[in-house]
Write a structure and sequence with these properties.
Layout: E1 4-12, E2 18-27, E3 32-36, H1 43-51, E4 58-63, E5 66-67, E6 78-81, H2 93-103, H3 108-121, H4 137-150, E7 155-159, H5 167-186, E8 192-197, H6 200-206, E9 209-214, E10 217-222, H7 224-229, H8 234-239, E11 246-255, E12 258-263, E13 266-270, H9 273-279, E14 286-291, E15 296-297, H10 302-308, E16 312-322, E17 326-333, E18 336-343, E19 355-360, E20 366-369
Parallel strand pairs: 3-8, 3-9, 6-7, 7-8
Antiparallel strand pairs: 1-2, 1-4, 4-5, 9-10, 11-12, 11-14, 12-13, 14-20, 15-19, 16-17, 16-19, 17-18
Helix pairs in contact: 2-3, 2-4, 3-4, 4-5
Length: 378
């Protein structure tokens, strides 16, 4: 079993600064778990505590059925892939991958078999005789991953392994690591992976589940789709998704039996029964509305507009970013800056300073308590 369990794990430095605040997390056997969050949120610190490279000051870390709090890294059954590859420059690829096995006194023929198997999986067989300086960054990172695979650890730990690569290489390596995880799992090998990144695209595309961290606390742990569609709080809603979610401060008002979200005299009608029930108790109270850019349209067909007649507001356009198949429209309503994401086929050409009608798909909106920032509907 390669399950990793964190129970009330804390990290406090000698100067009194508390980096990690009692984290509870259960990572399943064979799961690809991604830690994501802004710089300084303690994601790398948490990974290093699991690895044994950072001492914990409270709580318990379990790998499989072993409590590993006091075990050195070499006895924890982990293999770590670092951001800077950490390859020996004077050794060939083969020697780099075989080094850990030699130290563990694994038989020579077994070492050869494991190295060549891993090289084949990562498509680096032709590089086995080269030294690191003769390879690209992407090739070096594959070697670093290969060195981890040959050890057959209980858990793979990745600490921002792709951040030194250019955009195109990052995408291909991202796919390669995801494929590797699925391949190892299909072959019945250990495939528990914990992956640290600040790149939410990596997190969303790679993880079975994602753990969103901020200031050493877990904000939410869920599947990528649930994080996107059902964010537990304003932080997760704003962090996951690109461009970021729009946030508008306003008030819930009741008029003629219907609920409205009112900001600066602009009113958006709330239809959904489930939302109305949850928001009823917030009548005449300040809350925060969150709506993703793709849920604000800059024009619908005349038929749809005539049918709806609600949730259209006029905004002043400041910037239009042409992205090829879509456009990002930056606009303001009553001095509040917002962004709309629109497919080019549905787009109506607008320019700087022009006024345009925007449709708010309020049924897709989220509502957050102003004090706790928790998602009211959830």
């Amino acid at each position: 079993m390669s399950q990793v369990v964190l129970k009330k794990v804390e990290k406090q430095y000698p100067n009194g600064f508390k980096a990690v605040h009692g984290i509870d997390l259960d990572i399943k056997d064979g799961e690809f778990m991604v830690f994501v969050g802004p710089s300084g949120c303690a994601k790398s610190t948490t990974l290093r505590m699991i690895a044994g490279l950072e001492e914990i000051t409270g709580g318990e870390i379990w790998i499989g059925d072993k409590l590993v709090n006091d075990l050195p890294p070499k006895d924890r059954g982990i293999a770590m892939v670092f951001q800077n590859y950490a390859l020996y420059p004077h050794m060939t690829v083969y020697e780099n991958m075989a080094f850990g096995l030699k130290m563990a006194k694994v038989p020579k023929d077994e070492i050869d078999r494991r190295v060549r198997e891993a090289a084949e999986k990562l498509e680096i067989t032709q590089l086995l005789d080269r030294k690191p300086k003769e390879m690209s960054g992407g090739q070096r990172q594959r070697v670093a991953v290969g060195r981890a695979i040959v050890r057959k650890p209980d858990v793979f730990l990745f600490d921002e392994p792709l951040s030194n690569l250019d955009a195109k290489l990052r995408v291909s390596m991202r796919v390669k690591i995801t494929q590797l995880h699925k391949q190892l799992k299909a072959e019945g090998q250990t495939a528990t992976m914990i992956y640290v990144t600040h790149d939410q695209v990596e997190a969303m595309t790679m993880g079975d589940r994602i753990c969103v961290l901020n200031y050493g606390k877990i904000m939410q742990v869920d599947t990528p789709l649930n994080l996107y569609n059902k964010p537990a709080n304003k932080f997760v809603a704003g962090f996951i998704g690109s461009p970021a979610m729009n946030f508008i401060n306003g008030k819930i008002i009741k008029k003629e039996g219907s609920l409205y979200f009112d900001f600066a005299g602009n009113q958006l009608l709330i239809f959904q029964e489930e939302k109305c029930k949850a928001l009823e108790k917030y009548t005449d109270k300040e809350i925060i509305l969150g709506i993703r850019p793709e849920h604000i349209g800059n024009k619908l067909s005349k038929i749809q507009k005539d049918e709806a007649k609600v949730n259209f507001l006029t905004g002043k356009v400041s910037i239009v970013e042409h992205m090829g198949n879509e456009e990002f429209l930056y606009f303001s309503i009553s001095g509040i800056e917002m962004i709309s994401r629109i497919e080019v086929t549905k787009s109506v050409s607008v320019g700087y300073g022009e006024e345009n009608e925007f449709y708010f798909d309020i049924e897709k909106a989220h509502f957050f308590d102003e004090d706790t920032e928790e998602n009211i509907i959830l």
